[in-house]
Amino acid sequence: MNDLQPLRDFRSEVPEMSDVTRAERAFVTAMRAATPRPRSHRPLIFAAGLATAAAAVAVAVMMTSAPTPTPRVAGGSPATPAAGSSAPPAVKIKPVSVAELLDLAAAAPGAINPGPGQFVVTESLMSDMAELGQGGRFLYAMKVTTWVASDNSKPGVSRTEQLEPRPYPGQPLPADLPKAGSVDVRVLCPVKGDVTRRDYAYYGTLPTDAQGMLKVFARFPGGGADKNHYLWKAGIELAAAPMPAAQHAAVFQALKLIPGATLVGEAQDTAGRTGTAVGRAGPDGWRRDLIFDPVTFAFLGSRTVNETGAQVGGTAQLSVTVADAAPAAQPGPKQEGC
Amino acid sequence: MTRPTETAVATEPVGDAVIIARSKDEPELFAQIFRRHAPVIQRYVTRRLGPSVAEDVCADVFLAAFRQRHRFAPDRLNARLDARPWLFGIATNLVGRHRRAEIRALKALERTGVDPVTEAFEVSSDARLGAGAVNRRLAAALAALRPVYRDALLLVAWGDLTYEEIAVALGVPVGTVRSRVNRARSRMRAALGGADPTSIQEDL
Q1: What is the DSSP annotation of A251-298?
Q2: B50's torsion region: left (phi>0), alpha (psi -120 to 50) or beta?
Q3: Cα angle vertex A84, ends A79, A87, to 5°?
Q4: Nearest chain B Cα to A61, which residue?
Q5: Using CA atoms, how far apart are residues A24 and A20, in angstroms rounded to an integer?
Q6: At how many degrees (to 10) do helices B30-49 and B147-157 cross?
């Protein structure tokens, strides 16, 4: 099909819809205008029986009603769609099972499509436990921005900014903490050998089915006695990795195969955004959650919760974009040139 | 230790057909179908008609689909059935209502080298320069195709549908799709200068 390539490239700069949530709200307004008001507040249990394949997917969805319902015109459908005054909130689906939440995450929009030689720019927040001497526990926080060549073809850059440290739950903040505000910029050399590659093109070579992706989790660095625990942690890392939509969906489908996960409900990521989460407790009693946007089910970040329910670490994915160039950076003091 | 491969959790995503079937009783679930497919459908419509009308046409596609949801695959209880071909079929019909505008834009590109459809989108100037001549010839060739050929060809090239999916989308037999795409491709090859001219003469 090579003769089709020029045609495939023609007008390929047209991007996918950027704001699906906004478009969906407009669509829901028009849909409501086109239909009698649905009965809400009523959990709809729908399962086996529709079709043989559906029978395997025990599905139950609860519609949450819109906090500000669209004004209704007496007598049924309004002649014109509810005028643009206040767009109704997007339809919220409240997942009722781990499998359903991960399905919704797998179908969430937002994949990027970098060309060869372009950079994938990932902006994220990270927070984790650190210790300064005896009993000097605290939570450090940083903002990390990385520019990674989509095909591992040239050096990238990582920029790390230290943010204000926070107290470890139940403990005072130790004295003499490193100052917030310091910025460290480093060169990321292209990776030699597939095992350690972390670029978009490499991720594009991973399997797109759940079982295949689970094997990728199993090859992840780490390990430990509880296999499912490290599979889950590997899945959390890969959920944050920029990759084509098919592989990203497979990550969530593979997470479904790991036993022991539970719905957590509302949770905040490290950026303070509220999402809906699914988590799994490890042998240490700490639970690792994946947090998703409550409307689009796009991956927001992850968090670790200790045995008392306090958050002791987490990440927040702020943005994933594509750029033609990375900022200038010098190799670190102990780093040789690439 | 429990082997993860032995868990009984279903691994297939909730299929479009399941959501559409459920939306007959709970209409707002249809928003999920919009969320899943609108980005792809809107990009397709934008590539054909340009951004100014694409948003409205795309919304109309999903509203039409919503109104016709009772007719989605009533005879095939395949829960994993993908709604994409069906949606592309509706999109093709609605794009057809703007045929004159579509042709006008293609001819403008052929004439001036500026594409009214993509003007608003960023692309590196290198790519624009390099593809200029090719795009002008592509635009001329697309504009000259019979509409049914253009529909079939663009569902392959831009919609990424298989011949079987296009047959579902357009409601014609697979053989018809194959012959439309083949004819369209030979015209396009000729337009780009790589072809055997006899095959073109024959169906002019």
Answers
A1: HHHHHTTSTT-EEEEEEE-TTS-EEEEEEEE-TTS-EEEEEE-TTT--
A2: left
A3: 105
A4: B29
A5: 6
A6: 120
In the β-sheet with A92-95, what is the strand arrangement from edge to edge? A44-46, A59-64, A92-95
Full-model pTM: 0.53
Q: In Å, how far from its chain's centre is CA A68?
A: 28
Give the Cα separation of A293 and A311 in Å (integer). Answer: 19
Q: Write out pLDDT tens, residues B19-38.
A: 887 788 778 889 889 988 99
Sign for the CA dihedral angle at B167, B168, B169, B173 comes to positive
- Contacts B31 to A, Cβ<8 Å: 24, 27-28, 31, 90-91
What's the CA gap between A199 and A156, in Å, rounded? Answer: 10
The alpha carbon of residue A113 is apart from the nearest alpha carbon of chain B, in Å, by: 13
The whole-number mean pLDDT for each consecutive block of 10 residues of chain A, a chain of 338 residues, reads 84 85 84 61 33 33 36 34 43 76 85 91 92 81 95 92 90 82 88 80 94 91 80 94 94 95 93 94 93 90 92 94 91 71
Please name the residue ranges forming H helices in B4-158. Answer: 16-23, 30-49, 51-67, 84-96, 99-112, 125-144, 147-157
pLDDT at position A36 is 58
Count the residues in chain A.
338
* Region B72-86 average pLDDT: 68
Residue from B30, B177, B188, B147 nearest A5 by CA? B188
First-to-last C-alpha distance (Å) of chain B: 69
- In this prediction, residue B126 has a pLDDT band, given cuts at 50, 70 and 90, of low
**Do residues B122 and B128 make contact, with C-beta atoms less than 8 angstroms apart?**
no
CA atoms within 13 A on the CB side of A100: 21
Cα B143 off chain centre by: 17
Q: What angle do CA A235, A239, B15 make, to 5 degrees?
A: 95
Helix (H) or strand (E) holding A138: strand A137-149
| Residue contact B34–A27, C-beta within 8 A | yes
**Across the A/B interface, how many CB contacts are shorter than 8 Å?**
181
